[in-house]
């Protein structure tokens, strides 16, 4: 027995007549989160980079894909603030030890 938790709106239904469906905003190369400094490539499609995002320094570990012959950042990844990066770095020896014992 399945339950429905909400009604799905028809694609034609919008806030008012004449409104178009919302469009996804596209990023431009002028944005504050432009390419950072690539520290290393973990594998063919994974990189670690340091970049600035909204005025804050971030350590970005991300998968990339190729689109129109250009490397583009994917959704899979994580951006760590400096506080988060410091916590991870401080626990690196502990993580290495647990991996070695597994």
From TrEMBL:
Q: Name one GO molecular function term.
A: DNA binding
Task: Give the UniProt entry's GO cellular component terms.
Answer: nucleus
Which stretch is the leader sequence?
A: none
Q: Which InterPro entries match?
A: PC4_C, ssDNA-bd_transcriptional_reg, Sub1/Tcp4-like
Say where the protein is mainly found: nucleus
Q: Where in the cell is it found?
A: Nucleus
Looking at the record's lineage, which domain of life comes first? Eukaryota
Task: Write the record's keywords in alphabetical order, separated by commas.
Answer: DNA-binding, Nucleus, Transcription, Transcription regulation
* Positions of the Transcriptional coactivator p15 (PC4) C-terminal domain: 40-91
Its taxonomic path starts at: Eukaryota, Viridiplantae, Streptophyta, Embryophyta, Tracheophyta
User: One of this protein's GO BP terms?
Assistant: positive regulation of transcription initiation by RNA polymerase II
A Pfam family cross-referenced in the UniProt record is: PC4
Cite the record's Basic and acidic residues compositional bias ranges.
20-29
User: Could you tell me which residues belong to the region Disordered?
Assistant: 1-35
Protein's UniProt name: Rna polymerase ii transcriptional coactivator kiwi
Q: Which family does it belong to?
A: Belongs to the transcriptional coactivator PC4 family.
Q: Identify the coding gene.
A: KIWI
């Amino acid at each position: 027995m399945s339950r429905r938790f909400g009604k799905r709106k028809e694609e034609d239904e919008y806030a008012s007549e004449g409104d178009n469906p919302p469009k996804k905003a596209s990023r431009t190369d002028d944005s504050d989160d432009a390419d950072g400094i690539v520290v290393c490539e973990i594998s063919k499609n994974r990189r670690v980079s340091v970049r600035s995002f909204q005025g804050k320094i971030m350590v970005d570990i991300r998968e990339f894909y190729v689109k129109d012959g250009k490397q583009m950042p994917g959704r899979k990844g994580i951006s760590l603030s400096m506080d988060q990066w410091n916590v991870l770095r401080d626990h690196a020896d502990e993580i290495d030890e647990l991996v070695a014992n597994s």
